[in-house]
Amino acid sequence: MKQTAWPILRIVIACGMTLLLLQFGCAGRKISTRLMPTPLALTLGLPHPGGDFIESCQCGEEPTPVFVISGRNVEDASRKLNPFGTERQRIPTLGIAYLRVGAGLSSEELLAETTSEKRRKRAKVVFEKFELSKVPLEADPWRVKDNIVRYDQNPWVQAVKAQMERSNNRNMTIFVHGYNAEFIDNTLLAGEIFHYMGRKGVMLSFEWPSESRLLGYIQDKGNAAYSTRQFRAVISNVAKECNVDSITIIAHSAGAPIVVNALREIRMLEFDLPADQVQAKYRVGRVVLAAPDMDVMAFTNAVHDRFHELTSGVAVYASQKDRALGVSEKLYGNSRLGRAVGKLEMFEKEVLLSVPKIEFVDASVAEKEFKNVLGHNYFHRDPWVSSDIGSFILGRSPAQRGLEKSQNDEVFWGFPSDYPDRLRQRIATGFN
């Protein structure tokens, strides 16, 4: 074989490995799932972001709504579960999915399942139905920099407001999925996260168009880039349209650059507004970037462009043991943000350390403890990491959460080997 053929062969092999690993890391086909492992802090008695679990577990016989904004095309509106295809749609579609959490269990049994440290749960989350909004968006959804409310009478908007009133909470959590992710899977995961937040406020799943297949990685990355503008429209409008007090964003893998770049674009469009005013206008609170499949230097550029000024705080979770992103690095030839521990250049460290509002968490030790095969889905499969994410959303600092500076990289905070004991002590002292 000629020497010039080796680089092409390496790319082909790396591409195949990436697709294979990410296939198992991000996708599946099901209409129900077992409840994810309980975040560690909740098994130790820490209140979750929504308050009292007893009340939320009494809702087991009631369907749990997950609101959906989808950039996927509507392939068959008559389908009761998944009407979407894999193509792009210019104007996003609105809908509501209804899930059943803990079906067949009493409220006491669901409470025990929710707070138990056992990893394999009896409680299931079942996708029951999905309802497309019969009233489409008509006005240009890309407008920004105005305070005009255009959709006050839209039934979907009214349903969002009604959900906030029922739960006496005006927070919206937006989940942004990763590569090769199927609509039902994404919705189930959003429902699991919402359950552990006490089903308070509103859960919204942003469905950007994924090919949902093994060989769709390149197409998905292109779709993610395309979807940035649609997500920018969501952030530009949802707070004022739905009268939301605060927005929490949780983005995974290939969904992370959608969020970062959308916030970056809004900040650049609003270049004349001071940081406190731009945050007050869009009401974005805490932003979680879990295993972000994003170029490190692209993220550094977004920091230069002050994307973080729209938020009250950003947490980046990375792991040296993320094998999916490890192969992705071979394909792209550069470092991925979700695997950047110990790989940052000096100028990158200087930039990232200069912004206290952004914190970086090394999940490598946590992944070693729980031995996830691919190390890519730890944000909801690993009780240590999911616990820390919850505490971050509640506004606690890394030190308060029991983390310590990583030995691998001075930019990152890490999980000490005695993390459970440290967290137990923090809880006992009220995080003082």
Structure write-up:
This protein has helices spanning 5-26, 40-43, 53-57, 107-115, 155-167, 183-196, 217-242, 256-269, 275-282, 296-304, 323-332, 346-353, 364-370, 378-381, 383-393, 419-428; strands at residues 32-34, 64-74, 84-101, 124-132, 171-176, 202-207, 246-252, 284-290, 313-318, 358-362, 404-405, 412-414. The protein is of the alpha/beta class and 432 residues long. It has one domain (5-428): Rossmann fold, CATH 3.40.50.1820. β8 (284-290), α10 and β9 form a beta-alpha-beta unit. α1 packs antiparallel against α11 (323-332) and α7 packs across α8. The longest helix is centred in the middle third of the chain and has 26 residues, at 217-242. The chain is globular.
CATH architecture: 3-Layer(aba) Sandwich
Q: Strand percentage, roughly?
A: 15-25%
Got a strand count?
12
Which ranges are low-confidence, i.e. pLDDT below 50, for 5 or more consecutive residues? 1-28
Mean pLDDT: 87
